[in-house]
Write a structure and sequence with these properties.
252 residues; two-stranded antiparallel sheet; 8 helices; 5% strand; DNA/RNA_pol_sf; Pol-like protein; RT_dom
């Protein structure tokens, strides 16, 4: 019960998922309802059967700041999932973090998503390294990577998930983390539909651009033909003028 209450307290005021259950509702549940909810979570943890609504998400496209809003690739899809599902995931995550931290399974240079750690640690470490290098009258070369669409291009492998599951079994006295494994494999149908919609919109815009280019090319061809006709008319006019002049000289 303590894990459940702690997970609810740590929740943010985020929007509800497809089931329409808000965190505000969970915070005001009486003790009897919390026990019922805990039984549901324990049953899911034991059987690994996740409710179908927890596998779905409501996708809301958020435009990126300073980008062209007419381009569908300049939107960041935000997936709103079930608050009940996220409450259980937070409980599982707390257990995993406890195992990793208590057994020193994380690297000392891992500062992201850790308690009492932040990117400020890396900035201080880099500044210290630069100062020491200047004292030694040497040079520092830093390379920074910014991966575009890092999450979308991440390699996901079933074998990798299986390895994570086996490692958790070894560090949790033989208990199976079926819920976490199922959660890792599940797909967000809403997100995939949004991606397909974005690709279709991009293809439509590309087709429109190609059509516009063809029209411009056709207009350019028409202008060339018109210019050619005008030049021919000028030549005929000059020939006629020359003939008139010649006839005038003959007459004289």
């Amino acid at each position: 019960m303590a894990e459940l209450k702690n997970s609810i307290v740590k929740s943010n005021e985020s929007a509800a998922g497809p089931d329409g259950v808000y965190y505000q509702f969970l915070r005001h549940l009486p003790e009897s309802c919390l026990h019922t909810l805990l039984k549901l979570f324990n049953n899911i943890w034991t059987t690994g059967d996740i409710p179908p609504s927890w596998r779905e998400a409501s996708v809301v496209p958020i435009p990126k700041r300073g980008k062209d809003p007419s381009d569908p690739f300049n939107y960041r899809p935000i997936a709103l999932t079930s608050c009940l599902c996220k409450t259980l995931e937070r409980m599982v995550n707390d257990r995993l973090v406890h195992v990793l931290e208590s057994r020193n399974l994380l690297s000392n240079v891992q500062c992201g998503f850790r308690k009492d750690h932040s990117t400020l640690d890396h900035l201080v470490r880099l500044e210290t390294f630069i100062k020491k290098t200047f004292v030694r009258k040497k040079q520092v070369l830093a390379v920074f990577f910014d991966l575009e669409k890092a999450y979308d291009t991440t390699v996901r492998s079933i074998k990798k998930h299986s390895t994570i599951q086996e490692q958790y079994k070894n560090h949790s006295s033989g208990q199976e983390c079926r819920t976490g494994y199922s959660s890792a494999k599940r797909s967000r149908r809403g997100t995939e539909q949004a991606k397909r919609s974005r690709r279709g919109t991009a293809q439509l815009k590309s087709s429109r651009r190609n059509t516009a280019q063809v029209k411009r090319s056709s207009m350019g061809t028409a202008q060339v033909k018109s210019s050619t006709k005008a030049a021919a008319q000028i030549k005929r006019s000059r020939r006629d003028t020359s003939q008139i002049k010649k006839c005038t000289r003959d007459t004289a």
